[in-house]
Amino acid sequence: MFSKPKNIDTAFGQIRWFTLTIIIGCLLFSGLTHYKSQQLTTSLQVKVYILANGKALEAFATDRRDNILVEAKDHISAFHRYFFTLDPDEKVITANIAKALYLADASAKRQYDNLTESNYYSNIIAGNISQEITMDSVSIDLQVSPSYFRYYGTQLLIRTGSIVTRRLVTEGYLRTVSRSDNNPHGFLIEGWKTLENTDTHIQNR
After folding, report:
1. Could you tell me if residue 12 is inside a domain?
2. Which CATH number goes with the domain that contains 186?
3. Cα-Cα-Cα-Cα dihedral sign, residues 10, 16, 20, 26
4. 20 falls in which pLDDT band (50, 70, 90)?
5. How far is it, in rounded angstroms, from Cα 182 to Cα 176?
6. What is the widest separation between alpha-carbon atoms in the chain?
7. CA-based angle 84:189:135, to the nearest 5?
8. Does the residue 55 lie in any domain?
9. What is the DSSP pairing of strand 147-158 with strand 130-141?
10. Is residue 53 part of a domain?
11. Nearest-angstrom CA–CA distance, 43 and 127
């Protein structure tokens, strides 16, 4: 008569401890899962991947001060590449010049207008001339703002009967501005002018 209630109390106690163990186990498992997921999310947020030529490359965030010289040189190089890379196609010329003018102030627009008035671009198209430019070097004084720079480059004018090599030297100032899709480095070239643009070699084709 008394053994049955004792068995019920024992069974209830076992069920209670078993249930409590399951609950504690679930809480521990949930806590561990949440912790690991937070760790994974944090690690993924730190890593940034960019797609270049069909390959995923990991990018690392750094302070701009660590890369300011590299960015400044690339900004100057990109401006000259857009401004001086020409093909006998009006749309190509217009597209490249438009990209270049986003990177500089009115001084670049004035040079473009002067070249247009002198029929430089019309002659490029009429003569089926292609123009390419390679940066040789650039010096920048980043100790002052705006920063003075001098650019040294080599131009190739590819004509039907010859290839003309030219030495190009320009100068100007770099001012820091906001970054944008059209100006990813956040610089603006000011007071830009050409110091030298002379033929150094002519090769017949």
Report:
1. yes
2. 3.10.450.230
3. positive
4. confident
5. 14
6. 120
7. 40
8. no
9. antiparallel
10. no
11. 57
Tell me, what's the pLDDT at 123? Answer: 93
**Residue-wise pLDDT tens digits, 42-61:** 665 656 666 655 665 666 55
**Domain interval for residue 38:** 3-48
Q: Which two tokens stand for residue 23?
A: 């609950």
Residue 116 is encoded by which pair of tokens? 């247009």
Average confidence (pLDDT) over 121-132: 94
Encode pLDDT of 59-80 as tens digits.
Answer: 655 555 668 899 999 999 999 9
Name the region of 27 (left: φ>0; alpha: ψ -120 to 50; beta: rest). Answer: alpha
Q: Is the peptide bond before 5 cis (omega within 30 degrees of 0)?
A: no
- The token pair at 54 is 């069909």
pLDDT band at 140 (very low <50, low <70, confident <90, very high): very high
- Clarify whether residues 156 and 117 are in a common domain: yes
3-state secondary structure of 160: coil
Confirm whether 59 is domain-assigned.
Answer: no
Q: Report the Cα–Cα distance between both ends of the chain, in Å, rounded.
A: 118
Considering the domain architecture, whether residues 44 and 117 belong to the same structural domain is answered as: no
Distances from the Cα of 159 to the Cαs of 58, 125, 155, 163, 191, in angstroms?
42, 11, 13, 6, 31
